[in-house]
Amino acid sequence: MSEPTFPVELTVNGVLREARAPARRLLSDFLRHDLGLTGTHVGCEHGVCGCCTVLLDGDPVRSCLTFAVTAAGHEITTVEGLAGPDGELSAVQLAFHEEHALQCGFCTPGFLCTVTALLRDTPHPTDAEILEGISGNLCRCTGYQNIVRAVRRAAGEA
C-alpha cells in the first residue's frame, strides 16, 4: 500500500509551486526531489550542520527538520532565490565570492541564507554578532575567517 500524499502549495523564490508529498517528507527532500531545487544541500540530516538552511517567511530554518506539509502556504527562499531576477549576485553572494569565503562549497548555500537574514535583521553587526549569527552553520574547510570577512563586506564594513 502506498503512503498517502497531500497537496503542498507554497511560494518558492517568488514563484507559486505545488506538488504532492507524504506527510513525513522533509522540506529539504521536497525542494530537491519534488521541485528540482538542488541548491539546498543536506549534510548531517539532524539539524546540526546548517547546510540545509533556507528562509521560511524570511527566517532561517533547517529544512532537514521541517516537514514540507508544514511549509504549505508559506514563502520559502532557497539559495537559488538570493540572486536578482537578472541573475545578478546579491551583496552576500558577491561578498562570499570576493572574500573567498568558500572552498568545497557544500556549506555555502546554508551560510548564504543565514547571513542574508542576519544582515536584514542586523545591518551592521559587530564581530561578536557575526559569530553568533553564523554559529549554527558548520564549515569543515575554511576556518571561518573569510566567512566573517565576507559578512563584514556584505554589511559595507570591509
Order of helices and strands: EEHEEEHHHH
Q: Would you identify the regions where 5 or more consecutive residues have pLDDT less than 50? A: none
Give the averaged pLDDT, no decimals. Answer: 95
Describe the global form: elongated
Helix content: 25-40%
Which structural class best describes the helix and strand composition? alpha+beta
Specify the biggest β-sheet: 5 strands, mixed
User: What is the β-strand count?
Assistant: 5
Task: Please list the strands of the largest sheet in the order they lie side by side.
Answer: 2-1-5-3-4
**Percent of residues in beta strands:** 15-25%
What is the count of helical runs? 5
Q: Evaluate the radius of gyration.
A: 16 Å
The separation of the N and C termini measures 58 Å
Topology, element by element:
Elements: E1 5-12, E2 15-22, H1 27-34, E3 53-56, E4 59-62, E5 75-77, H2 91-98, H3 108-121, H4 127-133, H5 145-154
Parallel strand pairs: 1-5
Antiparallel strand pairs: 1-2, 3-4, 3-5
Describe this structure in words.
- The chain is an alpha+beta fold and 158 residues long.
- The protein is 30% helix and 17% strand.
- The model has no long low-confidence stretch (mean pLDDT 95).
A few lines on this structure:
The chain is an alpha+beta fold. Helix content is 30%, strand content 17%. The termini are far apart.
